[in-house]
Amino acid sequence: MELPVWFEVATFVGLTVLLLADLALVVRRPHEPSVKEATAWVVFYVALALVFGAVVLAVTNGQFATEFYAGWLTEYSLSVDNLFVFVIIMARFQVPRKLQQEVLMVGIIIALVLRGVFILLGAAVIERFTWVFYIFGAFLVYTAINLVRHRGEDEDYEENALIRRMRKVLPITQDFHESKIRVTQDGKKFWTPMIVVFLALGTTDLLFALDSIPAIFGLTKEPFIVFTANIFALMGLRQLYFLLGGLLKRLVYLSIGLAVILAFIGVKLIMEALHTNELPFINGGEHIEAVPEIPIWLSLTVILGVLVIATVASLLKTRGETPDDDERPRVAGGEAAVDTDEAGRTAPAAQADEPRRT
Questions:
Q1: Which of 175, 246, 314, 338 could form a disulfide with 253 if both were Cys (CB 3.0 to 4.6 A apart)?
Q2: pLDDT at residue 345 in the model
Q3: Residue 280 burial by CB count (10 A; 0-12/13-18/19+): exposed, middle or buried?
């Protein structure tokens, strides 16, 4: 069964309107969300994803609905892991706390556009070359092994080539000017650090997509399901950033859980590639019918079970522990990291107010 065209169009129109409304709300009233507000928004987006899955079930069938839930859970769990790096980026660029919502929102929109291109390319490659599942599967298993090997190591952020190049060629002001990315000073046009932060978040998320996109293609080959699962996972990420706060440090077994999930999907991809094998040097180019196919309901059960076990085990392990003040996201542009003036600009005592090239 194919997804109705009208349903796909209506879904993308609705999600676009929702994203634009969310962005307008953030731009109109920049502030640091309270725990209550962040919780309400996270619950809203999670409930919206659950409802959307039910709508998919009603419009199509249980196969597509289960694929969506499995893909959404996988993308959401991998996105939670990305929050560690987002915290580091915010601190690295000393983003004022009240501007962080808008920064995250724009960064997420940039990431969605880039992921959309990535998903379309991946779908085209998979449709033409089924053997690419061997590569995807091996890459996911390799990623899972690295997650376990480097577990416990401190996260760090290194600027990519694009960001380093921007710093060399663009005239960038020293301070933030609210959420503006372009300002005029002394009759000259300057960029603000906001443009660098936007691209840092967007391009960094694209790097994370190198494992998350192959992972979800291991659960569904339908590009619509892949993209909507990514949208729902990223839409709630902004408020989750403020809600989890220092609790991120308590998820000590998250990397192990993600490693198990990635390894499971990697093995699933390799088994599927063997089952539909067309490579001449494997079994003479014939399908290997003896290799079983893992049903999507089993994939969903494994993913959900691993996430629950990893989360509960982490909270039990760190029960009674309180994150230090310098580990909270408030450091990322908060009072502990940098003072701000009434315009929301960073203003350390020794910092000059004149524009410069960084």
A1: 314
A2: 39
A3: exposed
Residue whose tokens read 């609905």: 65
Coil/strand/helix, residue 295: coil
Q: Which parts of the chain sit beneath pLDDT 70?
A: 1, 81, 152-160, 245-248, 321-358
Tell me how far CA of residue 228 lies from CA of 19, 233, 234, 322, in angstroms. Answer: 13, 8, 10, 36
pLDDT at position 166 is 74
pLDDT at 52: 95
How confident is the model at residue 1, as a pLDDT?
A: 65
Q: Look-up: residue for tokens 């995250």?
A: 104
Task: Report d(CA 120, CA 117) in Å as an integer.
Answer: 5
pLDDT score for 354: 39
Domain ranges of the chain: 5-338
Between β-strands 182-185 and 188-191, what pairing exists: parallel, antiparallel or unpaired? antiparallel
Please check whether residue 218 is in contact with residue 75, taking contact to mean a CB–CB distance below 8 angstroms. no
Residue-wise DSSP of 194-211: HHHHHHHHHHHHHHHHHH
d(C-alpha 235, C-alpha 247), whole Å:
20
CA–CA dist 176, 171 (Å, integer): 13
DSSP 22-82: HHHHHHHS--PPPHHHHHHHHHHHHHHHHHHHHHHHHHS-HHHHHHHHHHHHHHHHHHHHH
The torsion defined by the Cα of 50, 3, 202 and 160, in degrees rounded to 10, comes to 120
Model-level pTM greater than 0.85? no
Contact 102/109 with Cβ under 8 angstroms? no
Residue 171: beta bridge partners? 357
Alpha-carbon span 229 to 82, nearest angstrom: 16
113 phi-psi bin (left φ>0, alpha ψ -120 to 50, beta other): alpha
Specify the pLDDT at position 202: 72
Q: Decide: residue 274, CB within 10 A, 0-12 exposed, 13-18 middle, 19+ buried.
A: buried
The pairing of beta strand 356-357 with beta strand 188-191: unpaired
